[in-house]
């Protein structure tokens, strides 16, 4: 099962996950990071800054989970721009080594396959950061996504477009389609780290961690992975039936285990 870590706030979550990533980069200077957008991973990127300061990160590679289709890559809310602004620049990564799926319309039918090839060529993702949407999506794998799915174009649910409208002038500006790593792609990463904060995520977290494994709640795919860490604050943990057990297990965890 996944290890569930209930933390007191976002900063603690960021520090915990950033420690793990910094250790990975120290061990493996050409580590392949799976990067996520949205507000959830921001404390991780923030906590990584001091931890990677002075570290040679020139060989670190990265793959973002998803991108909007048809958005100008230069648009400030394209995931390419977000990853550049929130991750690549502040951490001093080599932009040529950090990829996002190509959401440009021309040739879109091949972009998923190209992305899969690039990930495979890099040797796969070492650590994949994940947020979770209120629909239970990871990446942009909306309900109904196959557990075997690979990087492909998907239609966004209206709920997700409404959730993401805060980043745009109006909901009409939120793209209707995306290109996202599939659940099968995500499950190939060697370590999944899913973060969630706030009560609005409590239901999705409970479904992902404790609910039945179902494509109706794509985040539940994490139950099929052998190495998952779920980091949640108290409100996001509030609907977990076994929260006390998770707290107990984490408090009594043997030191040699690591995350
Ligand atoms: C977005 C992204 C997901 C993200 C999720 C939650 O639509 N495609 O990768 O995990 O929705 O976003 P937030 O972290 O802002 O709540």
Give an overview in words:
- The protein is built from 9 helices and 10 strands.
- The longest helix has 18 residues, at 10-27.
- The chain has a 7-stranded parallel beta sheet with strand order 1-10-9-6-2-3-5, sandwiched between helices. The chain has a 3-stranded antiparallel beta sheet with strand order 4-8-7, covered by helices on one side.
- 44% of the residues are buried.
- The protein is of the alpha/beta class and 259 residues long.
- It is globular and about 55 Å long.
- The two termini are 13 Å apart.
- The chain has helices at residues 10-27, 42-52, 79-91, 108-121, 158-164, 183-187, 202-210, 234-237, 243-251, and strands at 3-7, 32-35, 61-64, 66-68, 98-99, 127-130, 152-155, 177-180, 191-196, 228-233.
- Helix content is 35%, strand content 16%.
- It has a single domain (3-253), classed as Rossmann fold.
- α1 packs across α2 (42-52) and α2 runs parallel beside α3 (79-91).
- It binds 2-amino-2-deoxy-6-O-phosphono-alpha-D-glucopyranose (GLP).
- Residues 36-40, 65-66, 131-133, 139-140, 160, 164 line the site of 2-amino-2-deoxy-6-O-phosphono-alpha-D-glucopyranose (GLP).
């Amino acid at each position: 099962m996944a290890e569930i870590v209930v933390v007191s706030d976002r900063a603690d979550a960021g520090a915990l996950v950033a420690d793990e990533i910094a250790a990975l980069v120290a061990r493996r200077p050409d580590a392949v990071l799976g990067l996520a957008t949205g507000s959830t991973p921001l404390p991780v990127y923030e906590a990584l800054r001091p931890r990677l300061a002075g570290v040679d990160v020139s060989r670190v590679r990265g793959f973002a989970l998803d991108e909007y289709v048809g958005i100008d890559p230069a648009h400030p809310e394209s995931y390419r721009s977000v990853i550049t602004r929130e991750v690549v620049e502040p951490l001093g990564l080599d932009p040529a080594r950090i990829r996002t799926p190509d959401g440009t319309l021309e040739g879109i039918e091949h972009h998923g396959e190209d992305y899969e090839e690039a990930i495979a060529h890099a040797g796969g993702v070492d650590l994949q950061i994940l947020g979770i949407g209120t629909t239970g999506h990871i990446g942009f794998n909306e309900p109904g996504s196959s557990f075997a799915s690979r990087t492909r174009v998907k239609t966004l649910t209206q709920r997700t477009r409404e959730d993401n409208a805060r980043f745009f002038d109006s909901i009409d500006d939120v793209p209707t389609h995306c290109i996202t790593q599939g659940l099968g792609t995500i499950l190939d990463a060697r370590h999944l780290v899913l973060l969630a904060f706030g009560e609005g995520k409590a239901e999705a977290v409970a479904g992902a961690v404790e609910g039945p494994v179902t494509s109706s709640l794509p985040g539940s795919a994490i139950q099929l992975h052998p190495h998952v860490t779920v980091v949640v604050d108290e409100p996001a943990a509030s609907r977990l039936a076994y929260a006390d057990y998770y707290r107990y297990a984490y408090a009594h965890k043997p030191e040699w285990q690591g995350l």
